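FAQ: What does the model actually see?

It sees only this:
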Amino acid sequence: ALGLWQRFRAYQRYSGRRHGRLFRSFDRILRNYLSESGDDPFHAIRLFESRRQLPNQYVMKVDKASMAESIEARAPYLDRRIADIAYKTPAEWLLRDDTNKYLLRQVAMEGGLLPTATSAQAKFGAPLAASWLDEDAVFRAFAAERLLAPDSLTRRLNYGPAMDAYLSRGKTGQRWPGGLSIYRNLAWRLLLLELWAPHYLSDSAQNCRVASN
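And it is asked to produce this:
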């Protein structure tokens, strides 16, 4: 079973926050999946991933990114018949001896579908480039120039004090119970907004949207 601390760690993993009031909503959803799965943590997370993350995050983002460049993309394994098989596949066929995607790796290796180096390669994702803000002084200075400008959207959205604390004083986030617990991730998103807005929003539209928030 997933205890309270484990559920909270799952919340941190999915939300990108150290804490915050949204944990209650997340915990309610996860406990419902635990109940539906017979208190099986693996299947509960599988339900959360397929019913929440897949449609609201992965598929949505792939669709928006591909359509923005007029590319027709198709995410794999979304056929209902394949999903039915996946739900019935035992956990040990998906994760074994600390090897993830075990079944797919075995099919690829035994069928000679992929080079061994590829089928045995460790899984890696495409995380936010927010780490650049801490790792690259030049990029951090560029972000500070945009985010802390007197007329920035960041300041108009009242995130100026938080970004000044992060970029100028090295503060990493708010203490409990503040929701803006990881300033780096927020800074990355605000920087994308600052770079996007001049090309797609008029000054009047920017002011209107900021005022409405």
